[in-house]
Amino acid sequence: MIFKWETEEQRLLRFMKIPPKQKLEWLHQMNKFINKCSTKRTKIIRQKLRNSL
By C-alpha distance, which of 44, 24, 26 is closest to 35? Predict the structure, then answer.
């Protein structure tokens, strides 16, 4: 969908209406996809960043 007529505030409100569970599911799916498509080098870098935090 195209939401070019929205203001920034309207856009934020629209995203806030999405349930937290759905947001977490999307995040999980994105992480799975990124992990699947990443090279070995990027996986190592990502793991080092995770461990440093």
Answer: 44
Rounded Cα gap, residues 14 and 25, in angstroms: 18
Per-residue pLDDT of the chain (53 residues; tens, 9 = 90+): 666 788 889 889 988 999 999 999 999 999 999 999 999 999 999 999 989 97
CA 4 to CA 42: how far, in whole Å? Answer: 35
* Separation of alpha carbons 44 and 14, rounded Å: 36
C-alpha 31 chain-centroid distance: 7
What lies within 8 Å, CB to CB, of 11 at 6+ separation is 3
